[in-house]
Task: structure prediction
Amino acid sequence: MLAYLARRLLQSVAVTFVVLSLVFVAGRILGDPVRLVVGIEASEERVQRVREQLNLNQPLGQQYANFIGDALSLQFGTSFWQKVPALPRVLERIPATLTLTAAALALALPLGITLGALSALRPWSRIDRVTNVISLGGVSIVEFWLALMLILIFPVRLGWFKTSGYGGIEYFVLPALTLCYKPLGRIAQITRSAMLDELAKPYVKAARARGLAERRVVFVHALKNAAVPVLTISGDELAALLNGAIIVETVFGWPGIGRLTIQALERRDLPMVEATVFVVAIFIIVTNLLVDMAYTWLNPRIRFSAAGDA
Amino acid sequence: MTTDAVTRLDSASEAPRKVGIGLIMRRLLRDPVAVFSLIVLTLLLIALLAAGQVAPYDPLRQNLRLRNLPPGTPSVEEGGFPHILGTDELGRDLLSRLIHGARVSLAVGLGSALLSGTAGTALGILAGYYGGRLDDLIMRLVDLQMSFPFLLLALLVLYALGPGFLNVILVLALVRWMVYARVARGLTLAMRSSPFIDAARVTGNSDLRIIRRHLLPNLASPLVILFTLEIAALILGEAALSYLGFGVQKPEPSWGLMIEAGKSYVSTAWWLTTFPGLAIFLTALSLNLLAASLRAISDPVQRERWLNAGLRERP
Result:
């Protein structure tokens, strides 16, 4: 178990390295970072000055070594836009993103699992069809449009909630609702197919034969096993959730990492871009490690084989 | 074996009905949901091929006196086509812009799906067929990309390359190839050690020939379904990138861009955001529904049920 986690941790370090290299390539090799910063119209003299300021006149290998070294010591330089060290500014934004994504998941998980389980109990029933429509709608909708439609209905027509900003619950409802829709549909779909598989297995029949209440059979025995495939995809799901967060935060002016990323990209603020991507990567790695641990805990077959495996 | 036994075997193997394209089309047309998605997709195809002929107005012609006219406003020109969906913040006909926007969306969706599909399938087959280090390397990359939000990746590359139509196609292909690679590898891996591949190898076929003649045909139907789903995902991706300002640029009529432009008028001119979003939604929904029908057709067990089913049963 420990060996397994250690190996995963090592992999994560490799992943961070790859992501950092990618940022380096995107920021400094594909485009001229100085031109990105000062714009195309700037004078040659100004370009030269900025290039020296940013140590961009060194050879690429040297730049790369510096970049990785700085990143490892958590130095991303000063933001061009806010004139302060970039990393603390990014870290400040974590709570906002965390609350939003956590709230969306807190809505999507129980609702999605319940809907999925109910439709697996009665395939092709009305509730199954409704669930299917909900999940198909989820994969077919863009969050920014859903957000604007919600704004059109609630704040504009009914005067409920706030359209943008950060603060109390009235700012919070619409972004969380918008963000939870896609994962809700997908979770419902995965739960449905996992539950259908589980309910067909002999142990369910055995539990029923022993006279256990149907509710217990379905919601305790089968659902616990169905949770494994749901967790398996949650790594990909997290990536999808962050995709959504980038958009939702931008639409609602929610001061999270997603919005900061867009602002940094718009302002061509290279240090800030590098810092946000780094933080997002670390965030993903930590969450995936936690999911892995939950997964091993839920699934004894992995729990016992992992040690020998590693 | 006697000739008698051979003929009996032959006639027995002929029992399942032949499933040709004709039968599938006939069955699709009996299914209201499939008909709906086929209609939407046909309209889109028309828009893709003949936007200039179908659209009643020039999508780029501005007229500031006709700003934000509500849907159904008659044309100011004598005998002109009414603005069924209204006009936008610069007085351009919304319907015409939607039709031309369909062209952008579909071109990006199809283009990047073809690019990523080809590259992803090739890499997936290589990984599954040869295994070993190559497999390790490719799959690590797949896992890495899977766990990273593709929008962020696309934004990063677009930040370096600059926005624009062709760059969007390229970037979207770059961030979605792994979806195909994962599926193609899984299927190849499952088939690699099956008897018919062994037989092909024993009879002296080259690897390339085995992959082309024996593996690919078996991968085709799941990959076509995935392709359909991916077009939808890529259209949504293009819309998001354009909405955020990193995709297709003004004044090109991209649906995502139109929503972005209309959002300041959400309380005064609801049609500016509602219709483009509806267009995205209906397009993606139709593709997803079509993929569901295709999935039912491609699975022999489900197909029989689906072909025999009354109109009520959906796959």
Summary: Chain B touches chain A through 46 residues (CB under 8 Å). Confidence is low (pLDDT under 50) at residues 11-15, 310-315 of chain B. The longest helix of chain B spans residues 94-130. The radius of gyration of chain B is 24 Å.
